[in-house]
Amino acid sequence: MSGAYSRTSGLIQRRSAAVSVTNNSSDNAEVDEKDEKINSGEEDLDSKETRLTLMEEVLLLGLKDREGYTSFWNDCISSGLRGCILIELSLRGRIELEKAGMRRRSLANRKVICKNDQATGDVLLDEALRHIKETQPPETVQSWIEYLSGETWNPLKLRYQLRNVRERLAKNLVEKGVCTTEKQNFLLFDMTTHPLTDNVVKQRLIKRVQDSVLSRWTNDAHRMDRRMLSLIYLAHSSDVLENAFAPLSDDDYEVAMKRVRELLDLDFDTESMKEGTNELMWAVISSMSK
Q1: What pTM value is reported for the model?
Q2: pLDDT at residue number 247
C-alpha cells in the first residue's frame, strides 16, 4: 500500500510507491496575522498557495490521492497528529515548556504550560489549548500526546481525548478546496473518504519537503525553517514521510534518507539548549522519535 514503510533501529526503509500529478491550486486560506508573526522562520510561500497547519500537512502526505484515506496498516499517524497539534500551538505562541531550572531537567520531565490562552480560530487547536490551560498540575509532552490520543489507563484523563481528528482535519482540507468528500463501500461497511481534488497543493508540499533535504539542505537543524523541520520529524513518526520521497531518483532518495537519519541522530536535549530554539518543539520531537 502507498505510504507504508518499515523502520529498522529507528531509521526508514524504503518501499516503492506512486504519487500522481494533476492540476489547479486553491485560493489562500485566511491566516491570523498575529500567528504568522509568531511563526518565526516560516518560509515565504506563493501568496495564492493554500495555507495548511502541520496536522493538515501530515494528513495530506498520508492520504491516498484517489482513494482518499490513509493506509489501514498505519498505526502511528494518530499520535503523530497529536504531536503536530502541540507544536502548532507552540509555534503560534500559545504554549511552552516550563523553565529548565538550575539542575537542567530533561525535555521529557518538563511540563507544558499555557503561555497565551487567546483562541487560534482552529477548533482542534483551541480544544487542546483549553485542556492544557485547565489542567493543574501541568503535564509533560508525552502525557499530553497520550491524553489527546486517548491512550491512557487513567479514566479521569479520558476526557482530554480529541475525537475524530483525522475526519475533522480531512473536512478542513475539503473546506480549503484540497480534497472532496465521497462514500465508499467496503463490503461490510460504508466509509467516508476524501480523495484529492487539487493535486497542485500536495505536489507543492512534497516539493518543499524534498527540497529541504536536497537543494536547500543547510546541514544545521537550527538554520532550517521550524515548520519544515517539525514536519520532517512528525511525518517520519507518522509513517508518511516515504510518500514525499517515493518519486525521487535512487540517488536523490539515498541522499534524502541519509540527511533524515542525521536529523534523527541528533541529541534533542542538546539541540533544545541552543540559543533561540523552540524547546517545546524539541520536546515533542524527542517524545515522538523514541
Answers
A1: 0.82
A2: 95
- DSSP-derived secondary structure for 160-217: GPPPSHHHHHHHHHHHTTSB--EEEE-SS-EEEE--BS-HHHHHHHHHHHHHHHTTT-
Round to whole Å and give the CA distance between 45 and 63.
23
Which residue from 40, 7, 53 is spatially nearest to 165, judged by alpha carbons? Answer: 53
- Nearest CA to 228 out of 210, 252, 246 is that of 210
Inform me whether the pLDDT recorded for 14 exceeds 80: no
Number of H helices and E strands in the chain, helices first, is 12, 6
Polymer length of the chain: 290
Q: Who's near 57: CB < 8 A, 6+ residues apart?
A: 205, 231, 235
Convert the pLDDT of each residue in 195-227 to its tens digit.
Answer: 999 899 999 999 999 999 999 999 999 999 999
pLDDT bracket for residue 12 (50, 70, 90): very low
pLDDT exceeds cutoff 90 at 29 = no
* Residue 192 φ/ψ, nearest 5 degrees: -75, 130
Report CA 230 to chain centroid distance, whole Å.
Answer: 7
For residue 87, report the phi and psi dihedrals to the nearest 5 degrees.
Answer: -70, -40
Distance (Å, whole) CA 180 – CA 178: 7
Separation of alpha carbons 2 and 108, rounded Å: 33
Residues 6+ apart with CB under 8 A from 38: 91, 92, 93
